[in-house]
């Protein structure tokens, strides 16, 4: 069973190497990609069932016991997110194959899409599964390095400029991350996540909370918390839809996951959480106002993404079982829905040849199926019942009301306002793009890039992938009961921390 | 009960397919669900009336308070009579109203049945979350039904306004309900009502809930969405915007009123806005030429009336309220359906163009007259019975109730006047207008109008049929029930006199056509519609201006903000944490460290001043070598070797690359401008802050970490390596190394694919990139990119 924990990382890593070698054969690359991601999803299901039944599954690399070697740990939270991520990455890969961006540059033997994409997946899996702070940094590096390659596949001035914003901000966050690891090691002498809580508890209160907030900054850049979010809407929307979908849907959530993991496992609840609540509120409101101000479909979705990261920080900052359960539900919902929306945006752009809301019209009449594919995740994002976003939002609002301090009330109210403004934003999209007279497709503004748009048609792979994601988001709502129960158990684990530490360090709390 | 709701949803899902097959017949199929519900509800009426109140629960996600709970009581029964009864009627009517072969049949029938199911769920819901779920579903149905295919701007705007305004209320209601549930410790409405919480957040919670009711029931100042929604097909308006959905607000208030009727935060907003709405709606109705819009304003006015009666909070006003809810549902649906016939047969619903329909369609005219008289509160119709009760209930002698009575009388006078305006406008004969040409009104459609109209008459003579239901609701108030019964004739009483005065005054007002003369009363600028427009525009502009200011588009600014956050947040945490335990500070371990540190700092400082690329690269090299030398001083010769190797290699590569660049950085302007000082300041503060943290944190730990000890002790025995660093990299933490090798592979692949992409097509030159950079950035600063 313990080997299963390593497979979600090692499989895509080896598959990436094979895929690089098999660069000349698109079919082998596709088979490798789809096969490996399906395997990860299957493994994630097994891990989820196992962790839910028997507690965390732990692998000590090289047989060196924690805290001396590197530990991989799958607990409820990581297994759940691994499953959702595998499904999303699989859907995005199928979409990419359908959109044929995987074949971009094939004539010049630049066949890097599949290997880089698999590397990205390996990094994401490792980030969820690692139980070691430095190894988490390595996971981020793998993830980010492959994302740099994926975002710079086309070298027009605008694309290079936008991706430079992304690359430089990400490098800055890596720099701060490694600094933070040095500081943690300086203060505690360990980077093992399970061993940290005991060491941290011995530190002065000021050192503890400054370390906690340093981590918030490091992971907050990746998660795009206000005021560290500016890079996201400036860089993501320029990439092709599936790339944006996986970056926006997934990579920000890896940041959120790192926040949840480190803050709950390593740090205790204290007054600095008020600061987090305020950041959560700012993130929600500034993000959604940004969305309202946009005319570009992808930019609007990017700002909405920022805004809804605020919900996740909100639940985390409440630091109650219900709040954390709400966060887990929200992350699961949001990965799926946000990715689905970006994919739908890709389909719309393929049809209409434009991302400008003013330039499109009558999509619902021309392509009713696309309208359904947009409407379901959009309503879900706005928290309209009975979709997945509503389920997650209700949990968060109840958690906020249950905490009952003035700041908590204020953030709860802000969450409701954000919900309304999100509805306002998606209504703008619906009214502008989907209603009205059917418009002729616009000509492809850049015929030489990897995305062909303005064809007035779509490919089966794109529809199947997007439909699959939308179906997953509907299933999240249908099975909200078991999922919420599971999230609550995961949240209780996080707050308690005991099971995780015992599983990693042994019952006597560490040593050989 | 839950099965009935689910049956609606299932039927709605298959209706588009049925519509493809049977066309307009889909509406009749759709009517089966509400009709069966009505039959079931009536046949089980005893359960509700005998206070058995059967309850059903379906768990969804009970851990987070999500479950569907339905409870069948008197108020629910009354609402089902309206929701399902009129629902079935309207669906049948729509089958005749729709054009044969209309492509919208599938969508509209499905949405209407979905709506009927949601409304059913709404009135049966016994937990706050289900209540909200169904509430919001009705909003979405309304949006899609009003918007239709969204072909015209008017459709799009009206649908959006209805959605936004009612969602505003819906969400605030959700917050209020959650606060209320949190204060009472249960999400069950029946339990909250049985033991209402008090104090604390409860007043805020009830005001938030009321906001939901006011927006849904189109109370001032939220009302303009309702006349706007009249762009929807007339059967939709009849069902959603007269009989059912707009009643949801009144229903909500009626549902919670028994618990909160004494709370000022509850009744004051209700009666103030209710009265205002009643008078304003009636006044506006008098000025309309479009029959449908006239009815819409009439609905607004009546909803205000209904609100006032709940707000008054006595047993008799509660009875009057639910009587009028029933009466209004009956007469208003009849009138909307009448307008639908007129519109469909004549192609217009403008009073100024209609003439002579009364003599052409006598049966329809008779039915419509019944409905109009019920609306005006004229005997012998149900509207009169309800209004009598309302006046009786307000005649308590309490000054508050007297004030309410005065307002209600004024509103009722308007009601009588616009009722006459409707009747004469629709069916009267204008000498100046040629008689309207019209085909027969149609037996089926006229019958649909007749059913609710005749019901208004029958129930007035036999109020005992429904009185148990209505009085059953009034009994839920914690008040003793007085000896009062609904009846047409109570004797020569004061309420009868007041009714007579109202009718006479209303007739006089209609004859004098006062309204157009009073039109200048309300300045256009104060109208609520302008308020909505200003709010939406303000939101758009505010969002644009805030985002425009924050989203500068400049990478240096973004990095600066990130660094400032990195200093401020942990810095505040450090300060808030109280005094730190003392740390033993040593200036240096070896005197060699001092000159090396100075060298590194000086080189780092000058690198930002360098104008030539080569100088900058060389100075960066100095920093690297300096740090390598520090390693040597600390005894890490192997580390230093690695550092020197990397530094040298990087330097060589850089020098090769830089040959292709212009020798100087493009920015030729003076260096020490303000922006540069700010950046230098941020960089210096951030660097110093990290250094301070490093010192403080290192001081928090005593001795060698156990991991380090383990590595040193076991390196040779476990791995066979005599160098601990090697042992860590290739054995203890080999997995990190695998990862880093993967990163290298990725970087190499990325570089290769970039080069290959360049080989394929002529790339934009770097100089061109530089220029776009320089012009795009607002502060004229440039972004240097080194890779």
Automatic annotation (TrEMBL), chain A:
<dbReference type="GO" id="GO:0008137">
    <property type="term" value="F:NADH dehydrogenase (ubiquinone) activity"/>
</dbReference>
<comment type="similarity">
    <text>Belongs to the CPA3 antiporters (TC 2.A.63) subunit D family.</text>
</comment>
<dbReference type="InterPro" id="IPR001750">
    <property type="entry name" value="ND/Mrp_TM"/>
</dbReference>
<protein>
    <submittedName>
        <fullName>Na+/H+ antiporter subunit D</fullName>
    </submittedName>
</protein>
<feature type="transmembrane region" description="Helical">
    <location>
        <begin position="272"/>
        <end position="293"/>
    </location>
</feature>
<feature type="transmembrane region" description="Helical">
    <location>
        <begin position="369"/>
        <end position="387"/>
    </location>
</feature>
<dbReference type="Pfam" id="PF00361">
    <property type="entry name" value="Proton_antipo_M"/>
</dbReference>
<dbReference type="GO" id="GO:0042773">
    <property type="term" value="P:ATP synthesis coupled electron transport"/>
</dbReference>
<feature type="transmembrane region" description="Helical">
    <location>
        <begin position="80"/>
        <end position="97"/>
    </location>
</feature>
<dbReference type="InterPro" id="IPR003918">
    <property type="entry name" value="NADH_UbQ_OxRdtase"/>
</dbReference>
<feature type="domain" description="NADH:quinone oxidoreductase/Mrp antiporter transmembrane">
    <location>
        <begin position="131"/>
        <end position="418"/>
    </location>
</feature>
<feature type="transmembrane region" description="Helical">
    <location>
        <begin position="407"/>
        <end position="427"/>
    </location>
</feature>
<keyword id="KW-1003">Cell membrane</keyword>
<feature type="transmembrane region" description="Helical">
    <location>
        <begin position="327"/>
        <end position="348"/>
    </location>
</feature>
<feature type="transmembrane region" description="Helical">
    <location>
        <begin position="109"/>
        <end position="128"/>
    </location>
</feature>
<feature type="transmembrane region" description="Helical">
    <location>
        <begin position="29"/>
        <end position="49"/>
    </location>
</feature>
<keyword id="KW-0812">Transmembrane</keyword>
<feature type="transmembrane region" description="Helical">
    <location>
        <begin position="207"/>
        <end position="232"/>
    </location>
</feature>
<feature type="transmembrane region" description="Helical">
    <location>
        <begin position="239"/>
        <end position="260"/>
    </location>
</feature>
<dbReference type="GO" id="GO:0005886">
    <property type="term" value="C:plasma membrane"/>
</dbReference>
<feature type="transmembrane region" description="Helical">
    <location>
        <begin position="300"/>
        <end position="321"/>
    </location>
</feature>
<feature type="transmembrane region" description="Helical">
    <location>
        <begin position="134"/>
        <end position="151"/>
    </location>
</feature>
UniProtKB/TrEMBL annotation, chain B:
<feature type="transmembrane region" description="Helical">
    <location>
        <begin position="75"/>
        <end position="97"/>
    </location>
</feature>
<feature type="domain" description="MrpA C-terminal/MbhD">
    <location>
        <begin position="598"/>
        <end position="662"/>
    </location>
</feature>
<keyword id="KW-0472">Membrane</keyword>
<dbReference type="Pfam" id="PF00361">
    <property type="entry name" value="Proton_antipo_M"/>
</dbReference>
<feature type="transmembrane region" description="Helical">
    <location>
        <begin position="197"/>
        <end position="215"/>
    </location>
</feature>
<dbReference type="Pfam" id="PF20501">
    <property type="entry name" value="MbhE"/>
</dbReference>
<feature type="transmembrane region" description="Helical">
    <location>
        <begin position="639"/>
        <end position="657"/>
    </location>
</feature>
<feature type="transmembrane region" description="Helical">
    <location>
        <begin position="131"/>
        <end position="151"/>
    </location>
</feature>
<keyword id="KW-0813">Transport</keyword>
<feature type="transmembrane region" description="Helical">
    <location>
        <begin position="677"/>
        <end position="697"/>
    </location>
</feature>
<keyword id="KW-1003">Cell membrane</keyword>
<feature type="transmembrane region" description="Helical">
    <location>
        <begin position="295"/>
        <end position="316"/>
    </location>
</feature>
<feature type="transmembrane region" description="Helical">
    <location>
        <begin position="363"/>
        <end position="382"/>
    </location>
</feature>
<feature type="transmembrane region" description="Helical">
    <location>
        <begin position="109"/>
        <end position="125"/>
    </location>
</feature>
<feature type="transmembrane region" description="Helical">
    <location>
        <begin position="443"/>
        <end position="466"/>
    </location>
</feature>
<feature type="compositionally biased region" description="Acidic residues">
    <location>
        <begin position="770"/>
        <end position="779"/>
    </location>
</feature>
<dbReference type="Pfam" id="PF13244">
    <property type="entry name" value="MbhD"/>
</dbReference>
<dbReference type="InterPro" id="IPR001750">
    <property type="entry name" value="ND/Mrp_TM"/>
</dbReference>
<feature type="transmembrane region" description="Helical">
    <location>
        <begin position="486"/>
        <end position="510"/>
    </location>
</feature>
<feature type="region of interest" description="Disordered">
    <location>
        <begin position="766"/>
        <end position="787"/>
    </location>
</feature>
<dbReference type="GO" id="GO:0005886">
    <property type="term" value="C:plasma membrane"/>
</dbReference>
<feature type="transmembrane region" description="Helical">
    <location>
        <begin position="322"/>
        <end position="342"/>
    </location>
</feature>
């Amino acid at each position: 069973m313990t080997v299963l924990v390593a497979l979600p990382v090692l499989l895509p890593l080896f598959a990436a190497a094979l895929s690089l070698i098999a660069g000349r054969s698109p079919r082998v690359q596709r088979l490798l990609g789809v096969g490996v991601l399906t395997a990860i999803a299957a493994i994630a299901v097994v891990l989820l069932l196992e962790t839910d039944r028997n507690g965390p599954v732990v692998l000590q690399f090289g047989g060196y016991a924690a805290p001396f070697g590197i530990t991989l740990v799958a607990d409820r939270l990581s297994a759940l997110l691994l499953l959702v991520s595998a499904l999303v990455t699989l859907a995005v890969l199928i979409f990419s194959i359908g959109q044929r961006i995987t074949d971009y540059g094939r004539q010049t033997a630049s066949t890097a899409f599949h290997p880089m994409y698999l590397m990205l997946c390996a990094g994401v899996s490792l980030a969820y599964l690692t139980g070691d702070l430095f190894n988490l940094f390595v996971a981020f590096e793998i993830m980010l390095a492959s994302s740099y390659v994926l975002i710079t596949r086309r070298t027009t001035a605008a694309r290079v400029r936008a991706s430079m914003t992304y690359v430089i901000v990400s490098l800055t966050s890596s720099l701060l991350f490694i600094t933070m690891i040095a500081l943690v090691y300086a203060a505690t002498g360990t980077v093992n996540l399970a061993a940290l809580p005991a060491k941290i508890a011995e530190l002065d209160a000021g050192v503890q909370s400054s370390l906690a907030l340093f981590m918030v900054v490091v992971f907050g850049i990746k998660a795009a918390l206000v005021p560290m979010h500016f890079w996201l809407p400036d860089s993501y929307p320029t990439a092709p839809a599936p790339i944006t979908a996986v970056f926006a849907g997934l990579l920000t959530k890896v940041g959120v996951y790192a926040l949840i993991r480190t803050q709950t496992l390593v740090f205790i609840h204290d007054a600095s959480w008020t600061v987090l609540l305020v950041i959560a509120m700012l993130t929600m409101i500034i993000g959604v106002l940004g969305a309202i101000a946009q005319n570009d479909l992808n930019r609007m979705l990017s700002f909405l993404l920022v805004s809804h990261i605020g919900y996740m920080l909100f639940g985390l900052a409440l630091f109650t079982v219900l709040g954390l359960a709400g966060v887990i539900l929200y992350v699961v919902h949001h990965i799926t829905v946000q990715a689905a929306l970006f994919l739908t945006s890709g389909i719309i752009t393929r049809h209409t040849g434009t991302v400008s809301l003013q330039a499109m019209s009558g999509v619902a009449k021309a392509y009713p199926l696309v309208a359904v594919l947009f409407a379901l995740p959009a309503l879900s994002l706005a928290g309209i019942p009975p979709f997945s976003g509503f389920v997650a939002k209700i949990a968060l609002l109840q958690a906020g009301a249950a905490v009952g301090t003035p700041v908590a009330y204020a953030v709860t109210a802000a969450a409701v306002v954000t919900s309304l403004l999100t509805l306002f934003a998606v209504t703008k999209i619906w009214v502008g793009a989907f209603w009205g007279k059917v418009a002729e497709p616009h000509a492809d503004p850049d015929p030489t890039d990897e995305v062909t748009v303005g064809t007035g048609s779509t490919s089966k792979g794109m529809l199947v992938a997007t439909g699959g994601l939308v179906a997953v988001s509907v299933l999240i709502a249908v099975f909200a009961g078991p999922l919420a129960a599971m999230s609550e158990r995961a949240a209780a684990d996080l707050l308690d921390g005991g099971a995780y530490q015992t599983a990693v360090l042994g019952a006597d709390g560490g040593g050989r | 009960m839950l099965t009935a709701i689910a049956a609606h949803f299932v039927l709605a899902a298959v209706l588009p397919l049925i519509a493809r097959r049977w066309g307009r017949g889909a509406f009749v199929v759709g009517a089966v669900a509400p009709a069966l519900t009505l039959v079931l509800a009536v046949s089980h009426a005893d359960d509700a009336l005998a206070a058995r109140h059967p309850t059903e629960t379906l768990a969804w996600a009970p851990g987070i308070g999500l479950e569907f709970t339905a409870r069948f009581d008197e108020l629910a029964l009354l609402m089902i009579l309206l929701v399902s009864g009129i629902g079935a009627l309207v669906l049948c009517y729509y089958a005749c109203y729709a054009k044969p072969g209309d492509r919208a049949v599938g969508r509209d029938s499905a949405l209407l049945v979905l709506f009927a199911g949601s409304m059913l769920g709404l009135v049966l819901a016994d937990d706050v979350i289900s209540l909200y779920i169904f509430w919001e579903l009705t909003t979405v149905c309304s949006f899609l039904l009003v918007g239709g295919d969204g072909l015209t701007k008017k459709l799009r705007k009206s649908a959006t306004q209805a959605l936004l305004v009612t969602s505003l209320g819906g969400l605030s209601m959700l917050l209020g309900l959650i606060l209320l549930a949190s204060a009472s410790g249960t999400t069950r409405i029946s339990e909250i009502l049985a033991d209402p919480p008090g104090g604390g957040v409860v007043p805020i919670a009830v005001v938030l809930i009321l906001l939901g009711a006011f927006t849904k029931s189109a109370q001032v100042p939220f009302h303009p969405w309702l006349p706007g929604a009249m762009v929807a097909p007339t059967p939709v308006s009849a069902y959603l915007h007269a009989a059912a959905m707009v009643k949801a607000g009144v229903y909500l208030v009626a549902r919670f009123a028994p618990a909160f009727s004494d709370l000022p935060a509850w009744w004051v907003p209700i009666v103030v806005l209710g009265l205002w709405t009643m008078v304003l709606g009636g006044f506006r109705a008098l000025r309309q030429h479009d029959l449908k819009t006239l009815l819409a304003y009439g609905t607004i006015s009546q909803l205000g009336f209904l609100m006032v009666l709940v707000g008054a909070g006595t047993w008799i006003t509660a009875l009057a309220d639910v009587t009028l809810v029933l009466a209004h549902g009956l007469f208003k649906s009849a009138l909307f359906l009448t307008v639908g016939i007129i519109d469909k047969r004549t192609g217009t619903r403008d009073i100024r163009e209609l003439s002579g329909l009364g003599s052409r369609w006598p049966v329809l005219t008779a039915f419509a007259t019944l409905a109009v008289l019920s609306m005006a509160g004229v005997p012998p119709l149900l509207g009169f019975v309800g209004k009598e009760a309302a006046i009786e209930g307000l005649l308590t002698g309490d000054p508050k109730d007297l004030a309410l009575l005065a307002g209600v009388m004024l509103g009722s006078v308007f009601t009588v006047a616009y009722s006459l305006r409707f009747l004469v406008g629709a069916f009267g004969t204008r000498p100046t207008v040629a008689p309207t040409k019209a085909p027969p009104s149609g037996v089926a459609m006229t019958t649909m109008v007749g059913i609710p109209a005749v019901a208004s008459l029958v129930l007035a003579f036999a109020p005992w049929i429904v009185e148990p239901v209505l009085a059953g609701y009034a009994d839920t108030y914690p008040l003793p029930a007085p000896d009062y019964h609904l009846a047409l004739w109570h004797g020569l009483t004061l309420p009868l006199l007041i009714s007579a005065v109202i009718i006479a005054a209303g007739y006089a007002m209609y004859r004098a056509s006062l309204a157009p003369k009073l039109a200048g009363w309300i300045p256009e600028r104060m109208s609520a519609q302008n308020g909505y427009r200003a709010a939406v525009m303000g939101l758009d502009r505010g969002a644009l201006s805030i985002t425009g200011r924050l989203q500068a588009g400049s990478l240096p600014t973004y990095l600066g903000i990130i660094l400032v956050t990195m200093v401020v947040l942990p810095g505040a945490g450090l300060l808030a944490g109280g005094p730190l335990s003392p740390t033993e500070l040593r200036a240096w371990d070896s005197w060699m460290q001092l000159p090396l540190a100075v060298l590194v700092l000086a080189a780092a400082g000058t690198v930002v001043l360098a104008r030539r690329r080569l100088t900058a690269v060389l100075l960066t090299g100095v920093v690297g070598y300096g740090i390598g030398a520090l390693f040597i001083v600390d005894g890490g010769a192997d580390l230093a070797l690695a550092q020197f190797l990397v530094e040298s290699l990087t330097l060589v590569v850089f020098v090769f690359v830089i040959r292709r660049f212009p020798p100087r950085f493009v920015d030729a302007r003076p260096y020490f401008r303000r922006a540069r000082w700010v950046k230098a300041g941020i960089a210096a503060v951030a660097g110093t802050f990290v250094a301070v943290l490093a010192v403080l944190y290192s001081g928090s730990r005593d001795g060698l970490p156990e991991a380090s000890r383990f590595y040193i002790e076991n390196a040779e025995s476990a791995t066979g390596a005599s160098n601990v660093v090697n042992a860590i990299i290739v054995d203890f933490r080999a997995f990190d190394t695998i990862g880093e090798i993967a990163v290298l592979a990725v970087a190499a692949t990325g570089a290769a694919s970039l080069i290959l992409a360049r080989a394929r097509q002529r790339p934009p030159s770097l100089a061109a990139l530089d220029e776009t950079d320089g012009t795009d950035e607002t502060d004229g600063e440039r972004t240097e990119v080194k890779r």
